[in-house]
Amino acid sequence: MASLATAPRRDRPEAVNDRSPISDDAAWRAVKARDRGMDGRFVTGVLTTGIYCRPSCAARHPRRENVRFFATGAEALMAGLRPCLRCKPDEVGRDAAAVEKALALLAAAEEAPALEEIAAAAGYSPHHFHRIFKRATGVTPAAYYRSLRAKRAQTALADNERITDAIYDAGYSGPARFYADAGRRLGMTPSAWRDGGRGETIRWATAETDLGTMLIAATAKGICRLSFDEDEAALRRRFPNAAIEHGGGDMAALVRRTVAAVNAPERPHDLPLDVQGTAFQEAVWRELQRIPAGETRTYAQIAAAVGRPAAIRAAGSANGANNVAVLIPCHRVIRTDGSAGGYAYGLERKRRLLERERQGGLGSV
């Protein structure tokens, strides 16, 4: 597939200069994985049906011997194929341009624009554009705007003595809206956010699990740290401006539930979490929670799933920034070559977690 060696990735502007070689085997793996990150780098021609598709097309996979890869849709057309009506492979570039236009509109907006307004500016129906935007960025337009506004608020809180001034400088219509966002995103008061967490109370406890001694720390909102081989001193270094207190009996019920979740990672949990990060980090963490127990994904697959296929290293960094081991299952991410990669609490724990999930319980581990 020599023609693919120079095919630019057109699905996102930051990747238009990507001319890394793509072998037939790599292209087929991308098709089998329905890898959205490869959309725009090539199209898949199906000789038996006479159509060509995006790599991520949701249609049933053809037999390998009936497939030919093309660098562009134009090449596929010249070979006598026609575009798939389901995945519309020729609209990859148009979709990327529409998303970029929407991002610029959101960045310039003083108030959150309606979805209908954003979609009209991009030239799409609201429902279709909502799907395109989320596929490209990993979040909805509304969530993306809230993230932008929260970043403005963080800057404003650092620059203003009065919280009220910062709220309006960041573009909020009033304190009530900001406090609602703060409660959802930050898990702490605006003043605590401005001062590095000062004034926040974090309670902690340790407990024995089948993976070793676990440290659990929580705010009033939920668990903000779950780790292994750490103690109170490590927790204080991580949250230097918070009031750190031993949880005692008040945390007993939460600790019991957390131990149960750690000992049975294959089961879903409903533990309250108080974690925060950038919009990209939070998108990665959400994607980690979508990985079925017993399965793994590569860093490249996670980056593609959140709409940033070129950001493989950033996806790895977001994975490593996870503060709550097991509950947000960063252990389910491996390297592209199939090796385990890293894990903050040791590869042996990672191996045991994956083995336990695959076998569906503790008895055989």
List keywords for this structure.
365 residues; alpha/beta; DNA Methylphosphotriester Repair Domain; 15 helices; 10 strands; disordered N terminus; disordered C terminus
Description:
The structure is a single chain. The protein is α/β, with parallel strands linked by helices and 365 residues long. It folds into four domains: 86 residues, DNA Methylphosphotriester Repair Domain, CATH 3.40.10.10; 45 residues; 51 residues; 166 residues, Winged helix-like DNA-binding domain superfamily/Winged helix DNA-binding domain (Arc Repressor Mutant, subunit A), CATH 1.10.10. 42% of the residues lie in helices and 12% in strands. A hairpin with a 4-residue loop joins strand 6 and strand 7. Helix 6 packs across helix 7. The N terminus and C terminus are likely disordered.
